[in-house]
Write a structure and sequence with these properties.
72% helix; 2 strands; two-stranded antiparallel ribbon; mainly alpha; homodimer; 261 residues; Farnesyl Diphosphate Synthase
């Protein structure tokens, strides 16, 4: 669990969660347990996706994948334990300044991003689509579920535990939807434009596997254009908030668009 | 997820959860989402335990195991989705008559029964002990974590969402600890005394694998005696409650001791 959780990812999801809390509250620490939880869930999904029976990947963040180091048994169980620890951590470690009803809402939000309407749904359609021609609609379904839903939940959980109003939570949800899609479009672009060393994970594997990607379906230039439009739309939602408080989320959208690994 | 969840288990954990709620509340429906959640978690652990890289089992409750029907990929993902659905179901479906702070406590209790101090811990030590001589203390560690902790959480969650006092919750926890151990002792006895057909799962597999069991470590007669003592101890804790309200939990301890599959 430590090996994969502390392998040095970009921490995009917990940072989004904390930045979203900062948008609606002056106490960003309210969202720390939720921020840790989203990273645990993300790590769980990576460990299980890398398994021999799934993507069978050897490299992750420049290090051997969990099952390559500890074996398949431990990798399956480490993922299971990280998933339950995420909810345990939120439920047991969130401080008394977050009312319990808000915490329950955040747990409901985050858990719904994992299962049959979240990560797992995306992974199953992804697996089923390998080696097949798929439409842009199907590609979006995969990305929305495999990537965007957890990013959305990270942002929304931050705003909920931070005490955001209904309309504030809905606005950050719209921001998060754009950023979620953006994240995947950029991932797809990096897979075809960067080397394995630059990425810290196997490059070109989408092409090698004949997986559907944005560059494959719309061409690399159109994909980059689409990424630009998503940044625009995301930052537009933030104009309704205090500019200083919205700055971290605004910068994050730009960081995600221009990242190199 | 449906295939394994609805495969017709004994529903011991959800029944314990509901019976425990009935001990402290006249409204047993308060615990229904928690009862469903514990069965989802139990089912997840069975699906993952049966995987080829784990126990590699073909039969469960008289039916082919999940990965035998749907493949390893789906089996891993179905387990992941059931685990997150458990917490989603509790958080989103528990009615307004359960105060949110109680619900958070129940979620913390249940989630802690899964990870590195619960099911996963037991499974890891179990895997590591195959083919080795282990002590009675190590055997107890495995069973406490693999079986007893989730049974305990099922009972304790029922009492928490039902609104039991601190001392009532602690009393049902003691009851649950005895029943948890009892459950595993009986499981071990059945493995050596019943046929595959009677059990609905592969019989004698503990012996074949050279796994440590109570009959192996203390002999079959002493194991049966030990089971009797545990029923005594469990029902003793219930004497502090109204006899009519405690009847379901009392009967359950006896049912677990005398079950045949």
């Amino acid at each position: 669990m430590r090996y994969s959780l502390l392998a040095g990812g970009k921490r995009v999801r917990p940072i989004l969660c904390l930045a979203s809390c900062a948008l609606v509250s002056s106490d960003v620490s309210l969202a720390m347990p939720a921020a840790c939880a989203v990273e645990m869930i993300h790590t769980m999904s990576l460990i299980h996706d890398d398994l021999p029976c799934m993507d069978n990947d050897d490299l992750r963040s420049g290090k051997p994948t969990n099952h390559r180091v500890f074996g398949e048994q431990i990798a399956v169980l480490a993922g299971d334990a990280l998933l339950s620890l995420a909810f345990e951590h939120m439920a047991a470690r969130t401080g008394p300044n977050v009312p319990a009803d808000r915490l329950v809402r955040a747990i409901a939000e985050l858990s719904s991003a994992v299962g049959s309407e979240g990560l797992v749904a995306g992974q199953i359609v992804d697996i089923a689509s390998e080696g097949k021609e798929i439409s842009l609609g199907e590609l979006e379904y995969i990305h929305v579920h495999k990537t965007a839903k957890l990013l959305e939940a990270s942002v929304v959980c931050g705003a909920i535990v931070g005490g955001g109003s209904e309309s504030e939570v809905e606005r950050v949800r719209k921001y998060a939807r754009c950023v979620g899609l953006l994240f995947q479009v950029v991932d797809d672009i990096l897979d075809v434009t960067k080397s394995t060393q630059e990425l810290g994970k196997t490059a070109g594997k989408d092409l090698a596997r004949d997986k559907a990607t944005y560059p494959k379906l719309m061409g690399i230039d159109k994909a980059k254009e689409f990424a630009g439009e998503l940044v625009e739309k995301a930052t537009e939602e933030l104009r309704h908030f205090d500019a200083a408080r919205a700055a971290p989320l605004s910068h994050l959208a730009n960081y995600i668009a221009t990242r190199h690994n």
